[in-house]
Design brief:
The chain has 9 helices and 13 strands. It is an alpha+beta fold. Strand 9 and strand 10 form a beta hairpin. The strands form 3 sheets. A 5-stranded antiparallel sheet has the order 11-10-9-12-13. It has a 4-stranded parallel sheet with strand order 2-1-3-4, with helices on both faces. Strands 5-8-6-7 form a 4-stranded antiparallel sheet, with helices on both faces. The chain is globular. The longest helix has 14 residues. The chain folds into 3 domains: 85 residues, 3-Layer(aba) Sandwich (Rossmann fold); 65 residues, Dna Ligase, domain 1; 108 residues, ATP-grasp fold, B domain (D-amino Acid Aminotransferase, Chain A, domain 1), CATH 3.30.470.
Length: 286
């Protein structure tokens, strides 16, 4: 049986579920802590026990991305690939790829200074949503309802002036029900989907912020838009976030690389970790 390795930097429920399922399926399975693993340009694959396939599951985007680059340097099959992780980890790159591949997606505006972002805001009008181009769990995602709020947010960015603060990602606020859809695509199919309803009337729908998972039927229309989004970023094991626009129907606003699925697993008909393990193994041994 192929050897499965799961790379982590913090063990969440998802990593435990993947490990248990891989063992249950009969695979030689090991967890590898990225934080205590050293790789050099002088190393070869034989210097490590990375098995036949690696599932990269680091919480830290930058740690996981660079660890993936090391694995590919060593010719270790890894999911997701570096290109996919890079595309999905940066919201700007994701939005550009979705639009380039004709995937329905919200109108998104990019500026590279607070002055230019203010011009965009004046031209497009409020509300707009500002997001950090790198981040998860809804952190830093703010609805700019008016110019006063926007000015305050832009001022904070001027003060902190981190590298990512200089890139302004502004997105139209979609008119939708108080929910969105999280679908998990594995290879060429959508294996599970759920509605995430916002709590206390807010506009954020992250499970990490308390949203409750509700089963969502995987219609042909939903599957088609999710598969187009998956192909746009390079495919693999992905979490695809979809909103229901009142006029346009489904629009994809984010694609996630190391997707969390503990909430969706509660309501999914199919076994999500099993689908992920089998896909990775079957893809690696081809």
């Amino acid at each position: 049986m192929p050897k499965v390795r799961i790379v982590f930097d913090r063990v969440r429920l998802e990593e435990k579920m993947l490990e248990e399922k891989a063992i249950e399926l009969g695979h030689d399975t090991k967890m590898i802590d990225a934080k205590i693993t050293n790789v050099s340009t002088e190393n070869k694959k034989s210097d490590f026990d990375f098995g036949d396939v690696v599932l990269e599951r680091c919480v830290s985007y930058f740690r996981g991305l660079h660890f993936t680059a090391c694995l590919e340097f060593l010719d270790v099959p890894v999911f997701n690939r570096f290109e996919v992780a890079n595309n999905c980890g940066n919201k700007m790159l994701t939005s550009l790829l979705l639009k380039k591949h004709n995937v329905p997606t919200p109108k998104t505006y990019f500026s590279f200074s607070s002055e230019s972002a203010t011009e965009t805001l004046d031209k497009q009008g409020c509300p707009l949503v500002i997001k950090p181009i790198i981040g998860s769990w809804g952190r830093g995602v703010i609805l700019l309802k008016d110019r006063e709020t926007a000015d305050a947010i832009f001022e904070v960015r001027e003060l902190t002036d981190g590298p990512l603060d200089r890139i302004f990602y502004l997105q139209e606020a979609i008119k939708r029900p108080p929910r969105d859809i999280r679908a998990i695509a594995v290879g060429d199919q959508v294996v599970a989907a759920m509605y995430r309803t916002s709590t206390a009337g807010g506009f954020k729908t992250n499970i990490a912020l308390g949203a409750e998972p509700v089963p969502c039927e995987i219609t042909k229309e939903l599957e088609d838009v999710c598969m187009k989004a998956s192909k746009a970023v390079g495919g693999g094991i992905l979490g695809i976030d979809v909103m229901e626009d009142e006029k346009r129907g489904f629009v994809v606003h984010e694609v996630n690389n190391t997707v969390e699925f503990k909430g969706l697993a509660k309501v999914a008909k199919r076994n999500i970790p099993k689908e992920m393990i089998e896909y990775a193994v079957n893809s690696a041994v081809k």
